[in-house]
Amino acid sequence: MCQHKNDIAYCISCSDTICIECIRNDKKCEKCYCLYYMNECKNCNKVCHSDSYICDFCDYNCCKMCLRIQLEKSINDFVCPNRECSELLPVTNVVKILGLPWFNGDYKKYKKRTLYDIAMLKKSDKKVECKLCGNMCTISNTIVECKNQEKYTIYDIKTMEIYDPVILVSSEGFGTNVKQVYDKYLDEYNQCLEIKPKLDNCRGREGVEMNLFKIHKAQLKCREIIDILIEVNDLGKNEYKPVQKINKRLETLEKCLKIKCFHIEIKFNFPEIIV
User: What is the pLDDT of residue 66?
Assistant: First the structure.
């Protein structure tokens, strides 16, 4: 083992740990040979590629490894690791940083368990002293359901992260072309929220977890597409570059979630949705 074992960094491309002293001369990762510009991650305080994730809302930055860990253990869906921000993260941005194999591998494995624990709260007869109200409340693994607060609350007893389901805004004030597609995906998203209680009929934990993750992917799809449609609604005349960027984002979403999306074209100088 390298004598500088306590002075390590993380490679943004291969996630490997690297001795800083050993790569100081050429600034390259010995495993994948990527260029290596090192900063200090705000989250783990280690020298690494701290600019691998930068939040568009709060400018919080952290390394690839910290982003991955935060998203895997979070009981919410793709939110900024900064607790003071907690803005929603686009699926396409996360996949660009962490990769599609991570989404279909480790993320899926951890997320299925969390979704199952939340869904099984209504069946659990286990009680624990609630850290929010002090009374005995229902627990499923590490997920607690507190009904003694002013509003119904679900949280992780280990991290004290509160489950905050995403409620999407209506299409009021949108253009006719965008509104029709927007309303379609908004209805689909709301239907996903109503499907979960019907999973009681599934047999076996694996079957329940798979169904829950399918619903989760459908929710992520609707959430992302609605965010894209908001961008499309704000486009003006002859905005070719933003349209190219939006279409690229839609292509990434298609590959990530294995779905078929619409695309945007400029017709008569204005953007139009082509289904």
Answer: 79
Contact between 77 and 166 (Cβ < 8 Å):
yes
d(CA 260, CA 246) in angstroms, rounded, equals 15
Contacts of 180 (CB under 8 A, 6+ apart): none
The span from the CA of 134 to the CA of 150, in Å, is 14
Q: What is the DSSP letter of 37?
A: -
- The mean predicted confidence, pLDDT, of the chain is 80
* Terminal alpha carbon distance of the chain: 56
N residues, the chain: 275
DSSP per residue, 39-84: EE-TTT--EE-GGGEE-TTT--EE-HHHHHHHHHH-SSSSB-S-TT
For residue range 133-177, list pLDDT tens digits in order. 899 999 999 999 998 767 779 999 998 999 988 888 888 888 888
- Return left, alpha or beta for 268; rule: phi > 0 is left, psi -120 to 50 is alpha, else beta: left
Query: What pTM was computed for the model?
Result: 0.77
Which amino acid does the sequence have at 61? Answer: N
Nearest to 259 by CA among 219, 230, 231, 210: 219
Strand segments (E) across 99-213: 127-129, 136-140, 143-146, 153-156
**Beta strand segments in 141-202, E:** 143-146, 153-156
Q: Using CB atoms within 10 A of its CB, is residue 116 exposed (0-12), middle (13-18) or buried (19+)?
A: buried
Over range 118-123, report the average pLDDT: 89
Q: What is the pLDDT of residues 199-236, one digit of tens each?
A: 666 667 888 898 899 999 999 999 999 999 998 988 88
